[in-house]
Amino acid sequence: MPVHRVEQDIRLEPDHVYVLTEDKMMITEDGYLKVRRRYHREIINKSIDIFFKSMARSFQENAIGVILSGMGTDGIEGIKTIEDCHGLVVVQDPDTTEFNVLPQTAINKDDPHAILPPADIARFLLRHLGAYNSFT
Q1: The domain made up of 3-135 is a member of CATH 3.40.50.180
Q2: 10 Å Cβ neighbour count for 32?
Q3: Beta pairing partners, 10
Q4: Which residues contact residue 6 at a Cβ distance below 8 angstroms, ignoring those fewer than 6 apart?
Q5: What pTM was computed for the model?
Q6: Where are the alpha helices (DSSP H) in the chain?
Q7: How many angstroms separate the CA atoms of 50 and 122, rounded?
């Protein structure tokens, strides 16, 4: 799949990977990823929460949030919003992470659909998306 560093607004395309660049914030809106710079007053980085919340609002039950290795809590509010919209939440097994604070917090605060090592996350998502596509 093509990988894009998102530095400006870009239209979402199937089977593409989008990576947020440093010091940016991103939301989904009307089929686009919309980017703005992260302001200095935003001392606590909430870029994952902001993105996951916008994704949940945009895609509702089709939203998928994946929490991987990390030290903070950015993403926890976002996965709750995804769950509230009946989307899918997958968390990396904390035993397979370099930094397990974020995955463990996600497990403790939420009830993810799956807790898996990285290789199994990919297989799980492919199975989930295959089953979903057979109904649409």
Answers
A1: yes
A2: 14
A3: 33
A4: 18, 19, 20, 21, 24, 26, 33, 35
A5: 0.88
A6: 47-59, 76-84, 101-109, 118-135
A7: 24
pLDDT at 130: 83
Burial string for 89-125 (b: 16+ CB within 10 Å, else e) reads bbbbbbebbeebebbbbbbeebebbbbbeeeebeebb
Locate 22 and state its tokens: 């440093």
**What is the distance, to the nearest Å, from the Cα of residue 51 to the centroid of all Cα atoms in its chain?**
7
E strands, 16-99, are: 17-20, 24-29, 32-37, 64-67, 88-92
Coil/strand/helix, residue 131: helix
User: Domain segments of the chain: what residues?
Assistant: 3-135
Closest to 34 measured CA to CA, from 16, 20, 45, 14: 20
| Each residue's pLDDT tens digit, 92-128 | 999 999 999 999 999 998 789 999 999 999 999 989 8
Q: What pairs with residue 32 in β-bridges?
A: 11, 29
Using alpha carbons, select from 106, 73, 72 the residue that is nearest to residue 89.
106
